[in-house]
């Protein structure tokens, strides 16, 4: 892919003034904090359909296609509109009733998903807790910006990262903005609320639509691929990692090196600065 190449621990995308930290570090949730999509959200959608007597099953491949649509309610609405010969939209014609049904399904799905989170069956992705801890120790504000339901995201932060992190990690999620990713609204809202310059923010994403949202907001975007996004086009990303694990210690260096100037999106690769955010 032109302008982007895999990076080892000592090779990363970088810019000038490498000693400055970002003004804020913003994370997507699903696929970044936890690889939730295949074995979390998809399973919960299917169980919600089953409990409501709906003959729909989203298999792994189909759900991968549906992920191109940001937001669970939006995803269901698009899918049901594409299958008007089946319930629930076969017999429900009124737009307001369709919207209410989708909202009800989504509330049920969220409850089922949070049960999975509480069970501890979906661990944090490698390196996530460490990177967030380093950012907090360095005084860098951290937040989550997600199209998922706010309750679900807050539960993930509280259960998986702990109460101390949850107390300082802002959550911007769900319907808090009128348009979802790839629209930049969620990231621009976070910048306003945190009172930081979007050009000095670093976003960690795992999907093409997340990348588009971050770049449209004028932010630096680091990609950590997830199970559903291995083959997506990440042209324009400032760096691409397979994970945030210890084999990618350069991730923290990347955050420092990209925060000093507005991101260009050209993906030019040079050597990393030597110091990480801050060792704990």
TrEMBL record:
<protein>
    <submittedName>
        <fullName>Uncharacterized protein</fullName>
    </submittedName>
</protein>
<keyword id="KW-0479">Metal-binding</keyword>
<feature type="region of interest" description="Disordered">
    <location>
        <begin position="248"/>
        <end position="280"/>
    </location>
</feature>
<dbReference type="InterPro" id="IPR023214">
    <property type="entry name" value="HAD_sf"/>
</dbReference>
<dbReference type="InterPro" id="IPR044999">
    <property type="entry name" value="CbbY-like"/>
</dbReference>
<dbReference type="InterPro" id="IPR023198">
    <property type="entry name" value="PGP-like_dom2"/>
</dbReference>
<dbReference type="InterPro" id="IPR036412">
    <property type="entry name" value="HAD-like_sf"/>
</dbReference>
<dbReference type="InterPro" id="IPR006439">
    <property type="entry name" value="HAD-SF_hydro_IA"/>
</dbReference>
<keyword id="KW-0378">Hydrolase</keyword>
<dbReference type="GO" id="GO:0046872">
    <property type="term" value="F:metal ion binding"/>
</dbReference>
<dbReference type="Pfam" id="PF00702">
    <property type="entry name" value="Hydrolase"/>
</dbReference>
<dbReference type="GO" id="GO:0016787">
    <property type="term" value="F:hydrolase activity"/>
</dbReference>
């Amino acid at each position: 892919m032109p302008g982007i190449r895999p990076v080892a621990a000592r090779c990363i995308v970088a810019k000038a003034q490498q000693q400055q930290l970002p003004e804020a570090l913003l994370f997507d949730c699903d696929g970044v904090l936890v690889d939730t999509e295949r074995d979390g959200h998809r399973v919960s959608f299917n169980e919600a359909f089953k409990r409501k007597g709906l003959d729909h099953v989203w298999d792994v491949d189909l759900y991968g296609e549906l992920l191109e649509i940001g937001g669970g309610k939006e995803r269901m609405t698009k899918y049901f509109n594409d299958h008007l010969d089946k319930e629930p939209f076969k017999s429900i014609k009124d737009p307001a009733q369709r919207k209410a049904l989708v909202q009800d399904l989504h509330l049920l799905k969220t409850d089922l998903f949070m049960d999975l989170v509480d069970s501890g069956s979906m661990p944090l992705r490698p390196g996530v807790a460490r990177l967030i801890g380093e950012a907090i120790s360095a005084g860098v504000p951290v937040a989550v910006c997600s199209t998922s339901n706010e309750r679900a995201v807050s539960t993930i932060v509280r259960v998986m990262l702990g109460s101390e992190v949850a107390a300082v990690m802002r959550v911007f999620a769900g319907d808090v903005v009128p348009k979802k990713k790839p629209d930049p609204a969620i990231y621009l809202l976070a910048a306003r609320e945190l009172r930081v310059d979007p050009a000095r923010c670093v976003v960690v994403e795992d999907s093409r639509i997340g990348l588009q949202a971050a770049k449209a907001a004028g932010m630096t975007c680091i990609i950590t691929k997830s199970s559903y996004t291995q083959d997506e086009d990440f042209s324009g990303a400032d760096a691409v990692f397979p994970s945030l694990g210890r084999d990618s210690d350069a991730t923290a260096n990347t955050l420092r090196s990209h925060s000093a100037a507005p991101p260009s999106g050209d993906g030019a690769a040079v050597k990393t600065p030597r110091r990480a955010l801050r060792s704990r």
